[in-house]
Design goal:
225 residues; binds zinc ion; elongated; 17 strands
């Protein structure tokens, strides 16, 4: 089974979720109000590539923002340990990159292939707006919410939305510039934490053992008094 891996070489969150930790809507959000959407800026203001997090197929391409919905071919292992089929929605790739990648419904991208790119479609600075949902892809892939963002527009969000930090496993080769403050599963960091805890646990066990031996000796001395 494939895992769902973070899809850029640099992680730089330039706009985070429009919901608080407890799920409540964050009305101070710029344009993600009520949504678990992320804007990814890549290394700098240029256009970084995005690489398929697993095997995916294009389900829909839409609008001036060049929104593209990708569905995973199979269930994938997510950062929270659950296995799911997923839908990814990404916005803002430029027309020439969309054409160069051959993005159209039915096009399959294999894990690790270039499948999207930062862009400015829809008159924005170069970035990728990204959302994750639970498969299957249904209807138009998204829905209009009843919440307006600070630009005065109703927020749209992907169907059956999930939190990206619970989905993407971040490889040790990803350079993290801004993680948005979320609890990403970072492969090696997590492994290091586990091995540190293991070492501390072993040390405590040894100390406990020494104390137990000490108590036995003290009890033996007390017996002779
Ligand atoms: Zn966005």
């Amino acid at each position: 089974m494939q895992a769902c891996r973070f899809f850029m070489e640099y992680m730089r969150v330039t706009q985070g979720y429009g919901r608080y930790e407890n799920g409540n809507t964050d009305y101070t959000s710029y344009s993600h109000t009520g949504s678990y959407a992320l804007d990814m800026g890549g290394r700098d203001t240029a256009k970084d590539w995005a690489y398929a997090p697993c095997d995916v197929v294009v389900k829909r391409v839409y609008g001036e923002y060049n929104a593209v919905w990708f569905e995973t071919l199979e269930e994938v292992l997510c950062a929270d340990g659950k296995k799911r089929k997923l839908v990814f929605m990404m916005l803002h790739i430029d027309n020439e990159d969309k054409q160069a990648l051959g993005i159209q419904p039915g096009k399959v991208f294999r894990f690790g292939e270039r499948f999207y790119r930062e862009g400015s479609a829809g008159e924005v600075g170069n970035h990728i707006h990204m959302e994750v949902g639970l498969a299957p892809f249904t209807g138009t892939g998204w829905q209009k919410t009843t919440v307006k963002d600070r630009t005065g527009n109703y927020v749209w969000k992907i169907n059956n939305q999930l939190k990206p930090d619970e989905i993407f496993i971040v490889g040790k080769d990803v350079i993290i510039m801004n993680d948005g403050g979320y609890d990403w599963y970072v492969e090696d960091k997590r492994d290091d934490k586990i091995s540190l805890l293991q070492k501390e646990n072993d040390l405590l066990k040894r100390q406990l053992n020494e104390y137990e031996q000490l108590i036995v000796r003290i009890e033996a001395i007390l017996d002779t008094l």
